[in-house]
């Protein structure tokens, strides 16, 4: 690729975001990606963009690739609900399950502190929120449901207890549950669906105006988590699709909760927010929240912004559930999107996809780096590059030539009981 074959804006200060904010126009949903879950610059610049979207364009909430119960605790803190905590670092300790560093880090703490300060100047429904879109929290959601319902609604409590009792023989290990249901015709699907139906009829009034929604969302998480873990044991694309279907369903529910003119900022890995139909994921029958959002809300209403870097350091683990490590991230492989951008210049840059339409090399799939929570630099070439039609997968891309690892709050982490058989670890 010849030197500077397309237009881009160097990133030297936050003023460089002006062109991106203009490109977003009046979109209802803006999705901000990341090429890893452990890179400081991705969090920092997503925060800078998010601040402007909330302040200048009236965005109502941030929805992230995190579990609902933990993120809702952060939402309560941001909005100043009673007994929601007083110190940011203490509240972020709610992220105790591996990989803790994804949301329990100082970069996220800076965003949360800013959102809480902004909300102090707002009232009621004008307060900006923070929510989780993911589906892993089967046990945590069940426990929160039971805790909230006890003493409020006998029928709903009974349904919740039946669901918990159904899962009880498997302890807190979804892998054990998934394996058991693979060999016997019984599972807990009926119990969690019945619980969801009972909770949908439940009404209560507390100091937290979102409590009813929170309880129903935990019930929905339980239903879809049960479905996810059963699908996971079978392999293939089905569990990935259950997960991202839950994400778009949750996003849609949050937009409805906040009203017909509400707007959402989504923080997730590039493999979730970048339109999967323009990658080899589609070859395996996989879709993602970015693709589904474009289909549901319309392409002009959804802006997908990818992030990536050429080299640096990253926080990840060598194995699922293993202690986190700061790792060197080697230079991107030759021929990849990140290598091309490095060859053009070592500038950090913002690239709008409309400026890539005339570049022949980019109208086909090329390798695009993706690092998950499990990573080993020695084997990067074997599975860390997603063949991608860049101008179609994203509406814009933010590139950093060299990045550094995110700064976790937890200095070390213990292995959880989550299964090690996820089809992808993003």
Explain what this protein looks like in three dimensions.
By secondary structure, this protein is α/β, with parallel strands linked by helices. The chain folds into two domains: 212 residues, EreA-like (biosynthetic domain) (EreA/ChaN-like  fold, 3-Layer(aba) Sandwich), CATH 3.40.1660; 102 residues, no CATH class. Helices cover 42% and strands 13% of the residues. It is built from 16 helices and nine strands. Strands 1, 2, 3, 4, 5, 6, 7, 8 and 9 form a nine-stranded mixed sheet that branches. Helix 2 packs parallel to helix 5, helix 9 runs antiparallel to helix 10 and helix 10 runs antiparallel to helix 11. The C terminus is likely disordered.
Can you tag this structure with a few keywords?
426 residues; EreA/ChaN-like  fold; 9-stranded mixed beta sheet; globular
Fraction of residues in helices? Answer: 40-55%
- Counted by DSSP, the helix tally is 16
Low-confidence stretches: 413-424
pLDDT averaged over residues: 88
Would you tell me which CATH topology of the largest domain applies? EreA/ChaN-like  fold
Say how many strands there are: 9
CATH class of the largest domain: Alpha Beta
CATH architecture of the largest domain: 3-Layer(aba) Sandwich
Q: First CA to last CA: what distance?
A: 30 Å
Strand content: 5-15%
Topology of helices and strands:
Elements: E1 9-10, H1 18-24, E2 29-32, H2 40-57, E3 61-67, H3 68-79, H4 88-91, H5 106-120, E4 129-134, H6 138-149, H7 154-167, H8 174-183, H9 189-200, H10 211-234, H11 238-258, E5 264-267, H12 270-273, H13 289-297, E6 302-316, E7 325-329, H14 337-344, E8 349-352, H15 380-383, H16 390-393, E9 396-403
Parallel strand pairs: 2-5, 2-6, 3-4, 3-5, 6-9
Antiparallel strand pairs: 1-8, 6-7, 8-9
Helix pairs in contact: 2-5, 3-5, 6-7, 6-10, 7-9, 8-10, 9-10, 10-11
């Amino acid at each position: 690729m010849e030197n500077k074959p397309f237009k881009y804006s160097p990133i030297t200060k936050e003023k460089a975001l002006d062109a991106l904010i203009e490109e977003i126009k009046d979109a209802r949903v803006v999705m901000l990606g990341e090429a890893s879950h452990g890179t400081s610059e991705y969090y920092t610049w997503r925060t800078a963009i998010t601040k402007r979207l909330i302040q200048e364009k009236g965005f109502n909430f941030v929805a992230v690739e995190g579990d609902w119960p933990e993120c809702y605790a952060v939402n309560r803190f941001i909005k100043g609900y009673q007994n929601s905590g007083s110190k940011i670092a203490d509240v972020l300790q709610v992220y105790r399950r591996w990989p803790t560093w994804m949301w329990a880090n100082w970069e996220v703490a800076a965003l949360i502190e800013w959102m809480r300060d902004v909300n102090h100047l707002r009232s009621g429904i004008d307060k900006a929120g923070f929510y989780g879109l993911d589906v892993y929290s089967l046990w945590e959601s069940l426990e929160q449901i039971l805790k909230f319902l006890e003493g409020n609604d006998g029928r709903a409590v009974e349904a919740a207890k039946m669901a918990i009792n159904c899962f009880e023989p498997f302890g807190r290990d979804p892998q054990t549950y998934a394996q058991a249901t693979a060999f016997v015709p019984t599972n807990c699907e009926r119990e969690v669906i019945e619980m969801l139906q009972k909770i949908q009829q439940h009404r209560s009034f507390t100091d937290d105006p979102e409590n009813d929604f929170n309880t129903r969302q935990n019930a929905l998480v339980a239903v879809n988590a049960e479905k996810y873990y059963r699908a996971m044991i079978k392999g293939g694309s089905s569990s990935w699709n259950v997960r991202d279907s839950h994400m778009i369903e949750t996003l849609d529910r949050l937009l409805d909760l906040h009203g017909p003119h509400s707007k959402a900022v989504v923080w997730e890995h590039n493999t979730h927010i970048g339109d999967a139909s323009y990658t080899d994921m589609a070859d395996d029958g996989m879709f993602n929240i970015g693709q589904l959002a474009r289909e549901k809300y319309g392409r002009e209403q959804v802006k997908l912004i990818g992030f990536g870097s050429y080299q640096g350091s990253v926080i990840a683990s060598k194995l699922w559930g293993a202690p986190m490590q700061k790792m060197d991230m080697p230079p991107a492989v030759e021929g990849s999107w990140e290598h091309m951008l490095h060859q053009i210049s070592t500038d950090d840059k913002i690239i709008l996809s409309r400026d890539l339409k005339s570049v022949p090399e980019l109208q086909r799939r090329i390798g695009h780096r993706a690092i998950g929570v499990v990573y080993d630099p020695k084997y990067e070439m074997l599975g860390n590059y997603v063949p991608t039609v860049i101008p179609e997968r994203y509406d814009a891309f933010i590139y950093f030539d060299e990045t550094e690892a995110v700064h976790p709050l937890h200095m070390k982490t213990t292995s959880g009981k989550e299964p090690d058989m996820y089809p992808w670890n993003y």
